[in-house]
């Protein structure tokens, strides 16, 4: 059975309970697609029992630190673990520029002799349909403070869409049309919608509206900015105003069958 693991479910500021948002998906439990690399992502992979050579394809959705900041240390951890399998890294061209600059900062560590595995940087954009870890995908640009990309995944139980960071946009329901599961960000309660517009994020109310517009069967909320101003109960109540399907607020490490 194909699995999707919520490696992290938090917003840019991690908490004890929630690391920066990231996902891992596999059809067979051997080859994995990882999405995003912020925070302490190598430990999150280890906790999920994904071996160092298990990630075949890595998508970086955009260049904010909570999604890209751990890339050099992830690659170095893979090297130290003895990985030999090539790693393909998929991103928008604007993000690939950041990746190359970021890796160049660590060129001493990352170009040591006996470098054991190939890094293969691949560019994607709206409409790209690469097969990642055996999974058919389709990408679409979202609307965030930096160029960002969401992905639709063709999985055995039905299509799943992960939007990454975005504010409400017609591109979201277009990419997520009639998916079984929409995984989208939910950084703010709607009382802070002005902050959401400044940083181009989404409120729980808006996440429910976008999921309803997409015709999604289920909705999972990640990139959760829970804290003194935003609770899980508020997220459920706000999203449920428009979205009447099943609503999941996953915890870090949660595994679901897809
Ligand atoms: Zn983020
Ligand atoms: Zn962001």
| Estimated helix fraction | 25-40%
Structural class: alpha/beta
Residue share in β-strands: 25-35%
CATH homologous superfamily identity: Ribonuclease Z/Hydroxyacylglutathione hydrolase-like
Q: If classified by CATH, what would the architecture be?
A: 4-Layer Sandwich
What series of H and E elements makes up the topology? EEEHEHHEHHEEEEEHEHHEHEE
Per DSSP, the total helix count is 9
Overall average pLDDT: 96
Count of discrete structural domains: 1
CATH topology value:
Metallo-beta-lactamase, Chain A
Strands of the biggest beta sheet: in what spatial order?
A: 6-5-4-3-2-1-14
The CATH class assignment is Alpha Beta
Oligomeric state of the chains in view: single chain
Radius of gyration: 17 Å
Bound molecules: zinc ion
- Ends distance: 7 Å
Shape: globular
Q: Quick one: how many beta strands?
A: 14
What does this structure look like?
- By secondary structure, this protein is of the alpha/beta class.
- It has one domain: Metallo-beta-lactamase, Chain A (4-Layer Sandwich), CATH 3.60.15.10.
- 28% of the residues lie in helices and 26% in strands.
- It is built from nine helices and 14 strands.
- The strands form two sheets. A seven-stranded mixed sheet has the order 6-5-4-3-2-1-14. A seven-stranded mixed sheet has the order 7-8-9-10-11-12-13.
- α9 links the parallel β12 and β13 (246-248).
- The N and C termini lie close together (7 Å).
- The relative contact order is 0.16.
- The model has no long low-confidence stretch (mean pLDDT 96).
- One zinc ion (ZN) is lined by residues 12, 64, 66-67, 165, 223.
